[in-house]
Every structure is written in structure tokens, then in C-alpha cells.
Amino acid sequence: MSDIVTFGETMLRLSPPDGNRLERATEFEVHVGGAESNVAVAAHRLGSDVTWLSKVPRTPLGRRVVEELRGYGLETNVVWTQEGRQATYYLERAGTPRGATVIYDRSNSAFTTTTAQELEFASIRDAGLFFTTGITPALSSTLRETTTKLLKAAKQAGTTTAFDFNYRSKLWPPTAAKETLSSLFPGIDILVIAARDARNVLELEGDPRQLAHKLGSQYNFETVVVTRGSEGAVGWHDTVVHEQPAFETDTVSEIGTGDAFTGAFLSRRLAGADVPTALEYGAATAALKRTIPGDIALVTKSEVDRIVESAADDVSR
After folding, report:
1. Exposure of 27 by Cβ count < 10 A (0-12 exposed, 13-18 middle, 19+ buried)?
2. Architecture of domain 4-303
């Protein structure tokens, strides 16, 4: 039995050296990354037993993904298939004014065909927490149905459900996202959402504290976490909003920062921490992730503990 089960697609990320154009690239760095597996690894590094649930093509690229995630200590509950392809994405990085460019190549991947009937529900029913994101139902109509059934099964079993809204404009328009994702809200206990998505997709108004209050009261969530980029996050629980600033960090790679935050937050909550403490661990893990290349937060709990303890020392002086 795992503490946490996550469900989603993990991709191979190919990146030319910083500043190089994709159209002229002669070499690529290869990383494994996907929101749900990024969260899974962060939670595992903070002490949770975690299972990643997915569907993967039985190809060298599919095996690369699964073997790497196993190497990070995750249990992998995978449906192997001979059909479909391994999803990839490309990241072109540069400074101002060009910035970063992301190109997805995930259409018709093996994962987009995942049905609930193929998956092992026992792992979800036995887990302490089930987690997925708004990226998954954006990938296909099949996955919209599957996500709904998995959340329903988790709720019926008494498993806590957590969901990162995680809107991606490259995958679907705001109107479609709002309709689909808000229909999932009755099956969700813990919602994580960026302030910009609450405003631009759900069409709510207000600052992050007000957004958290509105979401919590309107949809009857147990907990709402509203992230606010470089300003940190706020967490709503029992009608009280707690604020958590971001920790200072030197950024090597911003990819996966939000996933690192969410994984640490969920791990600490499941371990019994209150919301303010879990937010602090999330912010500390996110700060560490920004110093690490790739998509995954290869942190240790002792490193995160040190940042949290250092912040507490600063406050007590």
C-alpha cells in the first residue's frame, strides 16, 4: 500500500544547449518529466511511499521513462501497450527578450487511450491520497472519462483526493478547461491552482487570499492552495487563509517548480503537518528545485529541513 498514488503521463524532454535554436540543434539533453511523476518524486524525497500509475508503450523510449522513475524510488503501476507512442516535448531556452519556448509532441500517445477498465483501482482505494492534474483530462476525451472515474473511486473508498488545476493553453482553450475541470470539483478534497488560472479560466476576481476563500466556500473543498509565482502561495483550510512567501533562490531551471511545491505540500500534510507547515515545506522544496537542472526535484529531506529551520531562526531573532 502506498501513501500517495499519482496518475498521469510522463514525457521525454529534449532540450538543445541554452540559447540554441531547435531548428539548428545538433545535440539535445534528455530529461524525464511530467507533472504527476514530478509531484510523485518530490513527495517520495520528502518521505512518502509513492506509486505512479500510467500507461506506457512497450518501446525503448517507454522503458526509459519507467526505468528512470523507478530509479528515483517510485513504485510504477504501468499498463504496457504495443500501440501508441511515447510522448515528448521540446524546450528551447534563451534569455530576454526571447525567453523559453515549449513545443509538445504528445498527440496519439499511448497514454491518451487509457481507460479506467485497464487500471488497477486497488492501489487507489488503499492509498492515503490520490493525485492527478488538469493536464490529464486535457489530452483526450477518453482521459476525461477515466479521470472522473478514478476520482469517484478514490472518494468512495475514503481516499483523500488532490488535484492541481495546471491549465495548459497549448492543450485546450479556457472555456473547455473551465467546463471540464469544474465538473471534477465535487470529487476533489485538496485543490492546487495558480492565481492566474483562477482568474483567467475560472473567471474569479480578487487577490490570492480572496480567490482561496471563494474557491473553498463555493466548491466545498477541504483545502485550497493558490500559488502566486515569485510571491509564494496561500493556503485556505477551515475558513482560515495562511500565507507563505517564496524563499530566495538562484534559478538554474524553473521547470517543475510548481510540482516540487505540490509534492512536498502533500507529503507533509499526509504525514500530519498542519497547513502552514506544509506550505513552508512546499516553498522550501520549490526553491531548491530551481537550483537543479531538469524537471525533477532531486532534493533530500535534510536539505528542505535546513531551509525551513533557517527561516524559523530568522523569525525568532
Report:
1. exposed
2. 3-Layer(aba) Sandwich (3.40)
